[in-house]
Design brief:
The protein is an alpha/beta fold and 285 residues long. It has 2 domains: 141 residues, Rossmann fold (3-Layer(aba) Sandwich), CATH 3.40.50.10860; 135 residues, NAD(P)-binding Rossmann-like Domain (Rossmann fold), CATH 3.40.50. The strands form 2 sheets. A 6-stranded mixed β-sheet has the order 2-1-3-5-6-4, sandwiched between helices. A 6-stranded parallel β-sheet has the order 9-8-7-10-11-12, with helices on both faces. Strand 11, helix 10 and strand 12 form a beta-alpha-beta unit. Helix 1 crosses helix 11 and helix 5 packs across helix 11. The relative contact order is 0.13. About 4% of the residues have low confidence.
């Protein structure tokens, strides 16, 4: 039996999700149909799309820009959210709760929302052999991308965490909101500063901004160094990675995170665990 999936976004034509999930399906030995689904940018249209999809027998949906927060609100009202989705305030993976065993989801028709972005990042770094336990980590950016990775990084054992942003108040607000949403985060010492004030030696620095896609560069201090540098963007030469590669850091873009978060979505939907390294090699061919 063919299982049906979609990815909902606006724009959506660029999405690599159908190709990625077809590779997963071939590895798992199951038959799927995975389509891109354009949606007008309003909550009512998004709700109509997901209702039609799931009532029509759809198994699972990915959610991308600009609907991750809308999806989170919808799941909070209708059914349930994973801890990562609650803390991130965003959902990238939708499924009907009747496919789950969670006892805290009340009705068979309610939607359950998860956020696999942050764990996808952590899993990719782990596969690269980058040590996170007791690591000193800095995140540049205080938007949605940063919000989704803080809890998974803390759960992975990072020792010190600094969030740097062009506007200091935005970084401070993010920490306040995350601490209110999670006891785990509240108990962790998170520092904040402006991007230009970020200095010293870190084990890992993560760029959670999209500035590199425009070719612009971050205002990084000369005294800022790290052993590992990760840019959550992918698909082109990224100045952030070039900067730290010139300083002898190991670097990676976010393509592995993209595949990692997709693999976790696929596992939530189908129960099949994906060999991400093997899938990545196939997708590179």
């Amino acid at each position: 039996m063919t299982q049906h999936f979609i990815v909902i976004g606006n724009p959506i034509a660029h999405s690599k999700s159908p190709e990625i999930h077809q590779v997963f399906a071939a590895q798992a030995g199951i038959d799927i149909d995975y389509q891109r689904q354009y949606c007008p940018d309003d909550a009512a249209s998004f709700t109509a799309v997901i209702e039609a999809f799931f009532h029509g027998g759809g198994v699972g949906a990915n959610v991308t820009v600009p609907f991750k927060q809308v999806a989170c609100d919808c799941c909070a009202a209708r059914g349930g959210l994973s801890e990562h989705a609650k803390v991130a305030g965003a959902v990238n993976t939708l499924l009907l709760n009747k496919t789950l065993l969670q006892s805290d989801v009340p009705t068979a028709e309610a939607l359950y929302g998860d956020n696999t972005d942050g764990q996808g990042l952590v899993n990719h770094m782990t596969s690269l052999g980058w040590p996170l336990t007791q690591a000193r980590v800095a995140i540049i950016g205080a938007g949605g991308a940063a919000r989704g990775v803080v809890l998974p990084l803390i759960e992975a054992g990072v020792k010190q965490l600094t969030i740097a942003n062009r506007t200091l108040t935005k970084a401070e607000t993010l920490v306040t909101e995350l601490s209110a949403a999670s006891h785990t985060i509240a108990e962790h010492d998170i520092q904040t500063c402006t991007t230009t004030e970020l200095t010293g030696q870190f084990d890992l620095i993560i760029n959670a901004t999209s500035i590199g896609l425009s070719g612009d560069t971050l205002p990084l201090a000369e005294e800022l160094n790290c052993h590992y540098a990760y840019d959550m963007m992918y698909g082109r030469t990224l100045p952030f990675l070039q900067h730290f590669e010139a300083r002898a850091a190991q670097i990676s873009d976010g393509y592995g995170m993209l595949i990692g978060q997709a693999a976790l979505s696929f596992e939530r939907w189908t129960g099949h665990t994906i060999d991400v390294a093997l899938a990545t090699e196939t997708l590179k061919q």
